[in-house]
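Lay summary. Proteins are chains of building blocks that fold into shapes, and those shapes determine what they do. In this project we predict the shape from the chain. Here is one chain we studied, written as its sequence of building blocks.
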Amino acid sequence: MPNPTVHIIATGGSIAGVGPDRMDYTLYPEIGDHLTIDQNLARVPEIGDHFNIIAEDMVSVGSTAIGPANWIALAERIHAIDRDEPDTAGIVITHGTATLEETAYFLHLTVKTQRPVVITGAMRPPTAISTDADLNLFDAVRIAATPEAAGMGVLTVLNNEIHCAREVYKANTLRVETFRANELGFLGYADSDHQVVFYRRPVRKHTVETPFRVDGMSDLPRVDIVHAYAGADGMLIDAVRAHGSAGLVLAGFGAGTFPPAVISAAEAAVAGGIPVVLASRSIAGRVVMTPRKDEQGFIVSDNLMPQKARILLMLGLSLSNDRDSLQDMFYEY
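And here is the predicted shape, written in a compact code that computers can read:
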């Protein structure tokens, strides 16, 4: 039986980072040098022993430099691979961890394929002692080639743990176990016995079940995030309005509460035609609708973290400015 084919799209990040020496874990992002994907693969010849690899470098940057234009380009490239490579089992994207969760969720909502799409990165560059780059790349390839991963939307893997793109977030600045999924838990393991094992599946709609299509788009509606803090006023919200942003996400306290001055400014934004989504600084739990929030015209984020609520609002605004329609999207996706 022939080895399965996996297509890898590389974008740079720590998984390809080049440090000044083997003891460097912090300076390499400032240096900015990256291995090509072929150089990454040469470090892990076992991948070629078990899989047929097609690889390409799309960009070579830290993920702090990746944004909506790159997301759209990635979605379009995935669609081209899905169309032109019928024998490809799955797709892997290598990516910096800083914004990996955002790229993953955008693709989770927009790519129209049932094939596995797996995003991985690393917390330690390939040049460092005890790098996690090699194993994470190997794990991503074997997950992408696993039939059980099909139809599960976009997945991420670091530290052997498989996460749903909707739920994963970066929780630690330096540790290899940085990816977590709050109280919901991860989906399964790329485990030490070389098995890919799943224990649960995503429930919220994704990929082929969403209405979001970005092929041919060049950008998305601008949405900004304003965080609440003790003593905050409406200055930043007023700045967002003055800039002409299409939408706003407020990251509040607890279950979505805010200083009075912030709420007043947010109500004025709603009255001015800007959709405002209430999210939370907390890493777990829902922001729920109440009669007062409904009367004020706000949208609630359910359990989406602010950075992901922003992505869903951007995509939602590409289809509709209707508040009820946008709110339904936060309940569905």
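What the prediction tells us: The two ends are 38 Å apart (CA to CA).
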